[in-house]
Amino acid sequence: MKRIINQTPNRPTGLALGLLPFVLVLLVYMVASAARLAENPNDPLLPSLSAMAESFQRLATEPSRRTGDLVLWVDTAASLTRLGLGVLISMAMGLMVGILTGLIPYVRRAFSPFVAVLSMIPPLAMLPILFIAFGVGELAKVMLIIFGIAPFIMRDVQQRVEELPTEQLVKAQTLGASTWQIMLRVVLPQVFPRLLDATRLALGSAWLFLIASEAIAATEGLGYRIFLVRRYLDMETILPYVAWITLLAFTADILLRLITRYCFPWYGGGRSR
Amino acid sequence: MSAVTARNLWKEYDSDVVLENIDLHVPAGEFVTIVGASGCGKSTFLRMLLGEESPTRGELLLDDAPMPAEPGPDRGVVFQKYSVFPHLTALKNVMVADELAGARLTGRLFGSARRQARERAMDMLQAVGLDHAADKYPSELSGGMQQRLAIAQALMKDPKVLLLDEPFGALDPGIRKDMHALILDLWQRRGLTVFLVTHDLQEGFTLGSRLLVFDKVRHDPQAPGAYGANITYDIPLQRQNPALYDEVRERVAAAEQETLKESTR
Question: Which residue from A minimizes the CA distance to B155?
């Protein structure tokens, strides 16, 4: 018998093992839901799968009686716009600040400690300040996401730039490159896939900040909706919404991975070295 | 081609003396190999030639002018590793030198300028025997091929001085032999001044036209950093200076022409 660290499952077994926890959770839920509904058919806590599917379909296809909107899509569009804006601005800031602090000693000395302190501020503690400063509109929500993830991305990019072997920078100089050209042709392309990695890791926090700010002040959005219907214990809406948010987050993660793989074939995710 | 001169050259880090009182003149076209124990300052000396480090005292001259204080296109370099850009294919690694020179703002060439740079780069790849791997990324190349690529890349700027920091240290013996042949051929054809730092004494003795040994002459067991290394051996080797070789070859050829003419008369 081989040691367990030397035993690897084959492909179908691996797939089955990966699915196992999902199936288990689903089964446990279905059993519990059926048991509760048998006692009280109007029990709101654990709605049946079919009831949730119905509710989800209603939200996705039937216009709301109050506003006439397709609630799910309006919420999704609003949330993704905020998230996308926040993440894109954070990426741009992270790339610029990270490359400059990573490559130029004067800039590093001037800003690196500042960014380090900035990243220690708990972003949610900033939320009241942001609401006061920017109002309860879109700007405050986007700002919260930026506050939450931009410092992390900046520091990560800076570290990746500092990790580039000195040999490469020296080599570029012996090929006649100026500082600007080194940034453009040596540092930027090598740091870009790492920026995507950092963004992928930051996406989880970005969702957290988005939903937190929507929960407090919004008129539409995925986070707004689940906190709104919480008052009526409307699990038929909340659970499908949570699943939907998870699906969106998962898709974003996979998209970023695919972009990295196709645009940067030379990049092994930092694993090869 | 370019001459390198050191006069009373010292290098110290705080209280640690690395190199002390180096006097050296290397005429243009020499192939200098540098050997010595680890920590004897041979790599520090190379970094000073490169401009990464500056002398604490004394002078380091390149063609009678002070050595520039940062790396530049007049001194090419090949390191043991990380010499090439992992995000560029072999061809683009070599093209990048022309692209940087041709487009100060974008660092990229387009149209006919790009085609020209491409052709020049292909010629260079051919010279080092890598034309078949032009579209491969460095990670897809073997260690020896990566070093060939690094040499090709370094030669694109036609540097006066080529600095090699243990370039073949990580290669298999057979491949190392091929690389020796390549670098000797390039040295003789292009008339470079070459400095090669190596751990391998055999390599140091067989490869160049002059061997320098760096070592500490004095030791203080109480304070290991008190004394620096100096050049303890400076040995002329068999290989000819290519300039001298060319001169002799031309003379001989001219003389042969003369005798030919005389005999046909």
Answer: A175
The third-level CATH classification (topology) of the domain covering A72-263 is MetI-like fold (1.10.3720)
A170: contact with B, CB 8 A cutoff: yes
A189 lies within 8 A of chain B by CB? yes
Interval B54-62 mean pLDDT = 84
The predicted structure's pLDDT at residue B242: 55
Nearest CA in chain B to A181: B107
Angle at A144 (CA atoms; ends A142, A145), nearest 5 degrees: 65
pLDDT at A80: 93
Higher pLDDT residue, B222 or B93?
Answer: B93
- Domain parsing of chain B, residue ranges: 86-158
Q: Give A160-215 pLDDT, tens digit per residue.
A: 999 999 999 999 999 988 999 999 999 999 999 999 999 999 999 999 999 998 98
Interface confidence (ipTM) of the complex: 0.82
Mutate to test the interface with B, among A161, A168, A171, A190 (most CBs of B within 10 A): A171
CA angle A154, A133, A203 (to 5 degrees): 35
pLDDT at B264: 65
Question: A-chain residues within 8 Å CB-CB of B52?
Answer: 170
* Residue B160 in tokens: 């006066």
Q: Which residues pair with B11 in a beta bridge?
A: B19
* Amino acid making up residue B149: L
Q: Which residues of B touch A266 (CB under 8 A)?
A: 86-87, 137-139
Cα A43 to Cα A33: distance, rounded to the nearest angstrom: 9
Q: Which residue has the tokens 């005999």?
A: B263
| Among candidates B75, B104, B137 on the partner chain, residue whose Cβ is nearest the Cβ of A178 | B104
Q: How far is CA A22 from CA A17, A25, A27, B161, in A?
A: 10, 5, 9, 64
* Tokens (6 digits) for B24: 């050296």
Q: Give the best-scoring range by mean pLDDT among A174-178, A229-233, B184-188, B248-252.
A: A174-178
Domain boundaries, chain A: 72-263
The CA distance from A169 to the nearest CA of chain B, in Å, is: 9
DSSP string spanning A225-247? HHHHHGGGT-HHHHHHHHHHHHH
Integer angstrom CA distances of residue B85 from A175, B104, B168: 12, 19, 18
More confident residue, A60 or A254: A254
Top residue of B74, B82, B105 to mutate, by most chain A CBs within 10 Å, is: B82
In this complex, which of A167, A176, A189 lies closest to B100 when CB atoms are compared?
Answer: A176
Write out pLDDT tens, residues B144-167.
889 889 988 998 888 888 999 888
Tokens of B75: 């001194």
Closest A-chain CA to B81: A167
Distance CA A126, CA A144 (A): 8
Kindly report the average pLDDT of chain A as a whole number.
Answer: 89
Determine the distance in angstroms separating the CA of B168 from the nearest CA of chain A, rounded to an integer.
16
Contacts of B234 (CB under 8 A, 6+ apart): B24, B210, B211, B212, B213
Q: Which residue matches tokens 């076209």?
A: B29
